[in-house]
């Protein structure tokens, strides 16, 4: 049985103790600070965030905060966005009174990897990081490997770092190329979509780029505890070659991330790398050094209601699953409250946040916000929250503050029906073992479901157990034999049990 840290020890340095399987809270930094400023009646930046805000996240059980969008944004990118009528219309759809000053630019159109002075600059970030550390919270920032803004200094001083084009190509395909200081550079892209109009493409195969990126990341690593790498798979040799072909020459012998990550860890050995990853390339990116990769497949299957596929997904190798990031919302996806209705939202949250691996919660998710803010905007719309949903999340996160969900052992549990009952197919179950034990059963359907759930705790045979669900206040007395041989579970549509299992004195 795994031995978990005690609650008191755990909070001393939550990010490092829980870095194997942390809970991460994503904040869209610019509009979040704008909202705090309105509430305070005066400007609030990273240096002056009220300490109780960080304390509340620690008390809720989070281990790290991802401050999305702290780097200096591009004025050139803002101008491009404001000229795009479709994009401006999408801004107004969410923020009807949107003004030009609300368009602060995309956080993924980086002009410089320096903290934007309007957010508090490097010193402001340092103060925020120190405050987070006092509460045992780590700090995660962004890194965008594939592209930079057209007014990034490298476009003027280091054109050899970019995918290049010719004047003829610029004339023929102005949507794919841009002229910067006399150099024709390719606009950034992935292989499945048109080029992005506000960024220029870095050349993953250029040795000089890899050296420059290592230097950049080492500087970033002095300011935080980890980075979330945007569209990380685009820089893999196989993907980059497919995207750019002969234009960029033969792939280097070593992959981009296999070069960059070890070099950064030479000077910052505890630094964590998180990959935004798609196209079933998560395992490959893990092998190239990433600590965690997005599990978009799990999210998609929850949205689609593919219970058999979800169960199959959870049979994957445990070491692989422990390095996935589970979520039902982030800044790229629609708000969970807009995707999952009522009870289904709660079931999806339980199913996601009790998995093994890193678990991600997006600011506004627990309040039931439904409007997804375009990342270009620096102000949130006025939107009523959902107090009942917030109360559910309070209870769920309180239960998940148990260190066993970070340092214990996760295992998928068997779930079986009986002749004439096929509803057990809608139940999925798993358990955690550590200083405490938890059994989780979720009905991922809109109909009642019942089945027998088997837990692996053979040492409980012959004794009794108390099963307590802190999210529903349900309490049951059962025998250990029931748990081992098959505990009967009947659940209504989108219902769940999150049982803390406490053996009786005779065990």
Quick tags:
single chain, 507 residues, alpha/beta, eight-stranded parallel beta barrel, eight-stranded antiparallel beta sheet, 22 strands, disordered N terminus
Describe it for me?
The chain is built from 21 helices and 22 strands. The protein has an eight-stranded parallel beta barrel with strand order 1-2-5-10-11-12-13-14, surrounded by four helices. Strands 20-19-22-17-16-15-18-21 form an eight-stranded antiparallel β-sheet. Helix 13 (282-287) links the parallel strand 11 and strand 12. The longest helix is centred in the middle third of the chain and has 15 residues, at 207-221. The protein is globular and about 80 Å long.
Poorly predicted regions: 1-12
Class based on secondary structure composition and strand pairing: alpha/beta
Q: Given the C-alpha coordinates, what overall shape results?
A: globular
Strand arrangement across the biggest beta sheet: 1-2-5-10-11-12-13-14
* Secondary structure tally, helices: 21
Tell me the Rg in angstroms: 24 Å
Percent strand equals 15-25%
Sheet of most strands:
8 strands, parallel, barrel
The average pLDDT value, as a whole number, equals 93
Cα distance spanning the termini: 15 Å
Helical fraction: 25-40%
Number of β-strand runs:
22
